[in-house]
């Protein structure tokens, strides 16, 4: 057998093995990091999303988000890209904690 064929077979066997037994669990370090993020989110207790995305898409995303994280109150500011950018700039000038999440397309 040539080297490429053996390598392809090994990759195929590995992929089948992982599919049969399932992928390995996330490491403990990543679990700890996720736990810290969720703990911080519980203290913050709210999420404001500044976006120019369509309202229907935002509502679908927030519905799924709220099912997973019911302890976080969600709000959004939806406008054109220029207005969203200006809002973020103005709030960052007035507040020590500017927007932490925004999407401008």
Describe it.
The chain is α/β, with parallel strands linked by helices. The protein has a domain at 43-105: Periplasmic binding protein-like II (D-Maltodextrin-Binding Protein, domain 2, 3-Layer(aba) Sandwich), CATH 3.40.190. The protein has 4 helices and 3 strands. It has helices at residues 3-21, 28-44, 55-68, 81-94; strands spanning 46-51, 73-78, 102-103. Strand 1, helix 3 (55-68) and strand 2 form a beta-alpha-beta unit.
List keywords for this structure.
105 residues, alpha/beta, D-Maltodextrin-Binding Protein, domain 2, 61% helix
List the helices and strands and how they pair.
Blueprint: H1 3-21, H2 28-44, E1 46-51, H3 55-68, E2 73-78, H4 81-94, E3 102-103
Briefly say what this structure is.
The protein is α/β, with parallel strands linked by helices and 105 residues long. It has a domain at 43-105: 3-Layer(aba) Sandwich (D-Maltodextrin-Binding Protein, domain 2), CATH 3.40.190.
- Main beta-sheet strand count, sense and barrel state: 3 strands, parallel
- Determine and state the CATH class of the domain at 43-105: Alpha Beta
> How is the largest sheet built, in terms of strand order?
2-1-3
- List the secondary-structure elements in sequence, H or E: HHEHEHE
Q: Label the structural class.
A: alpha/beta
Q: In CATH terms, what is the fold-level topology of the domain at 43-105?
A: D-Maltodextrin-Binding Protein, domain 2
Q: How much of the sequence is in beta strands?
A: 5-15%
Radius of gyration: 22 Å
Number of strands: 3
| Number of discrete helical segments | 4
| Helix content, binned percent | 55-70%
Return the CATH architecture of the domain at 43-105. Answer: 3-Layer(aba) Sandwich
CATH superfamily of the domain at 43-105: Periplasmic binding protein-like II
Q: Average pLDDT value?
A: 75
- Overall 3D form: elongated
Distance between the termini: 51 Å
The low-confidence runs, each spanning 5 or more residues with pLDDT under 50, are: none
């Amino acid at each position: 057998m040539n080297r490429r064929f053996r390598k392809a077979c090994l990759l195929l066997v590995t992929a089948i093995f992982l599919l049969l037994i399932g992928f390995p669990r996330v490491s403990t370090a990543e679990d700890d990091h996720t736990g810290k993020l969720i703990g911080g989110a519980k203290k913050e207790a709210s999420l404001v999303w500044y976006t120019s995305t369509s309202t229907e898409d935002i509502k679908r995303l927030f519905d799924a988000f709220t099912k997973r994280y019911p302890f976080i109150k969600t709000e959004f500011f939806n406008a054109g890209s220029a207005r969203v950018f200006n809002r973020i700039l103005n709030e960052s000038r007035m507040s020590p904690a500017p927007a932490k999440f925004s999407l401008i397309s």
